[in-house]
Design a protein that fits this description.
Organism: Haloferax sulfurifontis ATCC BAA-897
Shape: elongated
Keywords: Lyase
InterPro entries: 4pyrrol_syn_uPrphyn_synt_sf (IPR036108), 4pyrrol_synth_uPrphyn_synth (IPR003754), UROS/Hem4 (IPR039793)
Oligomer: single chain
CATH architecture of the largest domain: 3-Layer(aba) Sandwich
Protein name: Uroporphyrinogen-III synthase
GO biological process, one term: uroporphyrinogen III biosynthetic process
Number of domains: 2
Strand content: 15-25%
Largest sheet: 5 strands, mixed
Length: about 250
């Protein structure tokens, strides 16, 4: 695949951005790392519940560092990365939905949580689809905010590249990465130009919620992988972009 596929990636500035860069390199793309999320832990831990829902690898790692354990609760994880991190912490993962989204977990648990207490532990930007859906299924839901997601200072070089027509692909891994990208573009005075640049490129969204957020802001999404993982997103986006730029 051509080195001309410059692909912006917005993962947090930790091992995730490093792994993303390595993956894009291995696919023959030119990575443009531009972290759009920084993590501010709250120090909170989940309350007791018959079911405990964890939605991210970050949440698992923070709880593991704090010495928290699920005990007798039915531990539910959205997605393989979260589940793998929980198993690495030594916990038994009881439930993982087939669809790695809030709606997918609601569908997975709906028939089992009527009258049960469900503790949802996640970031401050978690979707109401999860908590509202579980309540509609009859659960007594409590939510604990484990960490806040903020935009790092200096983020936005990819927005300037997009505005200049110098990106071939952009890989959005959450609705918040979309919003922070646009906020960074606006701060640099290139919001509309950056959207136009993205619409001339291949835009990948990790799942339907991220796609919907991007499209609501006028960004045309080209690729949504069948599996909601970064690897699937990167492969699909680079393969889609490569034929256009391959010489």
């Amino acid at each position: 695949m051509s080195q001309q596929v410059r692909a912006a990636v917005f993962r947090p500035d930790d091992d995730r951005i490093e792994r993303a860069v390595e993956l894009l390199d291995s696919l023959g793309a030119t990575p443009v790392p531009d972290p759009m999320l920084a993590i501010e832990p709250t120090g909170a831990t989940p309350e007791a519940g018959e079911f405990v829902v964890l939605t991210s690898k970050t949440g698992v790692e923070l709880l593991d560092e704090a010495g928290w354990e699920p005990g007798d609760a039915v531990l539910c994880c959205i997605g393989p990365a979260t589940a793998d991190a929980a198993r690495e912490a030594g916990w038994t993962v009881d439930r993982v939905p087939d669809e790695y989204t809030s709606a997918g977990l609601v569908d997975h648990l709906a028939s089992d949580v009527d009258g049960a207490t469900v503790e949802v532990a996640r970031s401050d930007h978690g979707s109401a689809v999860l908590t509202d859906g579980l309540r509609d299924a009859g659960a007594d839901v409590h939510e604990t905010v484990l960490y806040r997601l903020v935009r790092p200072e200096g983020a936005g070089k990819s927005a300037e590249l997009a505005a200049a027509g110098d990106l071939e692909a952009a890989l959005f891994t959450s609705s918040l990465t979309v919003e922070h990208f646009l906020d960074a573009a606006a701060e640099r005075g290139v919001r509309e130009e950056a959207i136009a640049g993205l619409n001339d490129a291949v835009v990948g969204a990790i799942g339907p919620p991220t796609r919907d957020t991007a499209e609501s802001h006028g960004i045309d999404v080209t690729v949504v992988p069948d599996e909601a993982t970064f690897e699937a997103l990167a492969v699909a986006a680079v393969e889609t972009a490569a034929p256009t730029y391959h010489e």
